[in-house]
Fold:
Amino acid sequence: MPGGSAVGVPFLDLQSQYQSIREEIASTIHEVLESCAFAGGPYVERFEREFATYCGRQFAIGVGSGTDALWLAMTALGVGPEDEVITIPTTFFATAEAISLCGAKPVFVDIDPYTYTMQPELLEDAIGPRTKAIVPVHMFGQPTDMDPVLEIAARHGLKVIEDACQAHGAEYKGRRAGSFGDAGCFSFYPGKNLGAYGEAGAVVVDDDALAQILRTLRDHGQSRKHDHVRIGWNARMDGIQGAVLSVKLKYIESWTDARRRHAREYSRALAELEELVTPFEAPNVRHVYHIYAIRASNRDRLADSLRSDGVQCAIHYPTPIHLQPAYRCLGYVENSFPVAESCADEFLSLPMYPELVESQIEEVVSSLSRHRSAVAPPA
Ligand SMILES: *Cc1c(COP(=O)(O)O)cnc(C)c1O
Structure:
């Protein structure tokens, strides 16, 4: 059903991508079944080598999810109770949750109003005697301005753990996201740019000793069978997910190019609608558009209007983390982070996936242009 006009435009379409690789997927899953390498094993190890190379890192450690990746990377780097870890409040909840799972306290800094990533200039004021690490999040697929983050971290002796869960293949000054900090963390949740057919994640690192610690942490702290050298967890990657990810990694570059083409097309077509703010791409960056988020005041009304036209959109994320009920204990109040809070009110994510076709983008744009009167220009 090219164009999909009869059914509107879905926000995400995993079905059409699966159809394009279904033979390869079936045969690789069949191989895993025949070998019974279900938890860890050769298919995970092959994917680890391929993904480390893809990221420009020495090692990748396959784990159960992006949340596991963040939690275990911080644990391996010594984040623990009494520590503070600085991140942004507009990210997915798991970024802060992983900090809390280490027993540490999340501390937030506001985001840049153009790139929606961490404002490095705000870090110095947030750093205190207990600060242990910084977690920049490459939001929506756009890398954080890493040079100043790394410089400040080095000056204060802090670890840097990149949350690259939305940024597979994104680049900053020609280097891949995930290759800058002490560790880079990825999610392969099915809807991510590189998605498994189930839950999976990975940590990428260069340091051999750190890689070794991570391998033990994901497997009950075992250095070898029955030799538990630390308290870990069961966070192994499934063999089937490793095999699926190896197939999909071969296509990630062309899928990313398609996302970037769709983003350019949206931005070109939406430039006339001055009520809307389209994404800004920083110079020296390859944005991989996990999410194509526009900003609009009266966002909720606009979203309803689009839905009534069959255009499925989403909101990433309607409540910033410092205002979530689970983090009331941190004591943040409204207006703590003005940019993050106004973005949370205005962000609207448009349909974005590699298999989008031109007529679908046209349908989204024409729906937005019909309903533009629902919004006033953002302040
Ligand atoms: C998806 C995501 C995570 C969590 O990954 P899971 O695989 O769902 O555990 C963490 N941080 C960000 C920014 C994400 O988008």
